[in-house]
Design the sequence.
C-alpha cells in the first residue's frame, strides 16, 4: 500500500456514523457539550459517572458559561481562569475544583472558564469572548496542560483521540461527544508565523459531513497532523520530505535517505511549541494594553509527573524557555509536585495514584490549590481578602 492508501484507510475508519452526530445534536439527549461554530463546542450542564470510585460528577454553568460558583458568588470576581480540562476540573463535581478550594480559602470568588479538550489557541479565543463582557476580570490565570500545545494544530482532534473515545461516548447515558472540528492554527512554512484556519464544519448541519469519507479525504487527506498519525501507525515517514520549507522555518534537519521518524516528531512538536509561544506573546501584549495581568499555570498528566519524579525528565523545556523570554510569570506544576513529593516515602507512581485518575481527583484538586496558593497570594494586587493586613 502507498502512503495515500494508508491515509484513505485511516480516514475511512474515522468516518462517523450519523447516529453519533444525531446523539450530539439531539436536544433531548443529555450531553456534556454543545455545538459552537468557532470553538467546536462549549460545556453544557451534565451529570457523568466519571468521578472517583465511579461516582457521578455534576457539571453546571453560570450565566457567562463559567462553571457554577459555589463560594462567594455574590462578591465581585477579579480572577478569571481559562484552559482545558485541568482548568474545568474534569471528573469532579461543582465545588470540588481547585478554583473553589482557593475561593473558599481566599474569601473571594474565582471564575472557571475551562473547557475540556481545548488547546492554548482555543482557550485564548474563549478568553477574549469572555473578557469583552461584564464577566471581565483584571487578573487572568491561563492553565496550560502539556497536550494543549498539540491541540493548537488539530483541525479535528477526534482523529487523534481515536475510536476508543467514540466507543466510550456511545457507552454513556450522557453524550461525551466533542473534539469535533474547530478554528485552529498552523505555522506558515515561508515565515514561521502562526496562521489561523477556520473551522471546516462551522454549522451543526455540517457535522454530518464527517459521516462522508469523500469529505474526510477532501478536508483532511493532506492534513499535516493526519499524515503524522498515519505514519505513526505504518512506520512510513516519507511524507516528511514534502515539508522541507516548514523544516527550514523550524530548524528541523531532514537527513537524506533517513526514515524521518525523528524529523516527523520534531516538526509536530516544534510547530506546537512555536504556536504556543506566539499565541502567548500576543496575549501578553493585548492583556497589558487592556490593563490586565497574566499568570500561566503549567499542569501535566500523571505519567509526566511520575517520569519527572523518577528521573527529572520534562517534556516541554522549550515552553519554559519561551515563557522566560516573553517575560510571562508562570507556575511550574512539575516542580511543585517534585517539591511536594519530598514529604512522602512512596514510589513516583504511588505518589501520582494519590492525586490522579485521568485528571486530578477531588484530593488532587485540593493539593494543586494549596501547591499554587503562595504564588497566587504574592502575585495578586492587593492580596486576597484572607491575607490582607497580615505582616507578610
Sequence:
Amino acid at each position: 500500500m502507498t502512503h495515500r492508501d494508508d491515509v484513505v484507510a485511516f480516514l475511512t475508519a474515522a468516518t462517523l456514523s450519523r447516529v453519533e452526530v444525531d446523539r450530539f445534536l439531539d436536544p433531548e439527549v443529555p450531553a456534556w457539550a454543545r455545538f459552537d461554530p468557532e470553538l467546536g463546542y462549549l460545556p453544557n450542564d451534565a451529570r457523568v459517572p466519571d468521578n472517583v470510585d465511579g461516582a457521578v460528577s455534576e457539571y453546571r454553568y453560570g450565566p457567562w458559561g463559567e462553571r457554577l460558583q459555589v463560594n462567594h458568588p455574590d462578591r465581585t470576581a477579579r480572577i478569571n481562569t481559562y484552559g482545558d480540562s485541568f482548568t474545568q476540573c474534569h471528573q469532579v463535581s461543582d465545588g470540588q475544583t481547585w478554583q473553589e478550594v482557593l475561593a473558599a480559602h481566599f474569601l473571594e470568588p474565582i471564575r472557571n472558564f475551562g473547557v475540556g479538550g481545548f488547546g492554548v489557541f482555543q482557550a485564548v479565543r474563549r478568553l477574549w469572548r469572555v473578557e469583552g463582557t461584564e464577566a471581565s476580570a483584571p487578573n487572568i490565570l491561563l492553565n496550560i496542560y502539556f497536550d494543549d500545545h498539540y491541540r493548537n494544530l488539530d483541525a479535528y482532534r477526534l482523529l487523534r483521540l481515536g475510536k476508543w473515545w467514540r466507543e466510550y461516548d456511545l457507552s454513556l447515558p450522557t453524550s461525551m461527544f466533542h473534539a469535533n472540528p474547530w478554528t485552529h492554527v498552523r505555522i506558515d512554512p515561508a515565515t514561521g508565523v502562526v496562521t489561523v484556519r477556520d473551522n471546516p464544519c462551522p454549522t451543526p448541519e455540517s457535522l454530518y459531513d464527517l459521516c462522508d469519507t469523500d469529505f474526510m479525504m477532501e478536508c483532511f487527506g493532506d492534513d499535516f497532523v493526519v499524515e503524522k498519525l498515519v505514519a505513526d501507525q505504518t512506520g512510513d515517514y516519507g511524507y516528511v520530505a514534502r515539508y522541507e520549507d516548514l523544516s527550514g522555518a523550524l530548524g528541523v534537519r531532514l537527513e537524506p535517505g533517513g526514515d524521518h521518524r525523528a524529523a516527523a516528531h520534531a516538526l509536530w512538536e516544534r510547530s506546537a511549541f512555536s504556536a504556543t509561544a506566539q499565541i502567548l506573546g500576543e496575549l501578553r501584549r493585548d492583556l497589558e494594553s487592556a490593563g490586565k495581568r497574566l499568570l500561566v499555570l503549567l499542569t501535566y498528566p500523571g505519567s509526566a509527573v511520575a517520569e519527572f519524579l523518577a528521573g527529572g525528565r520534562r517534556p516541554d523545556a522549550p515552553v519554559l524557555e519561551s515563557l522566560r523570554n516573553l517575560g510571562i510569570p508562570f507556575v511550574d506544576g512539575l516542580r511543585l509536585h517534585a517539591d511536594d513529593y519530598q514529604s512522602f516515602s512512596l514510589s513516583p507512581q504511588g505518589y501520582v495514584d494519590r492525586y490522579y485518575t485521568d485528571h486530578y481527583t477531588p484530593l488532587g484538586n485540593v493539593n494543586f490549590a494549596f501547591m499554587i496558593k503562595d504564588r497566587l497570594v504574592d502575585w495578586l494586587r492587593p492580596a486576597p481578602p484572607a491575607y490582607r493586613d497580615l505582616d507578610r
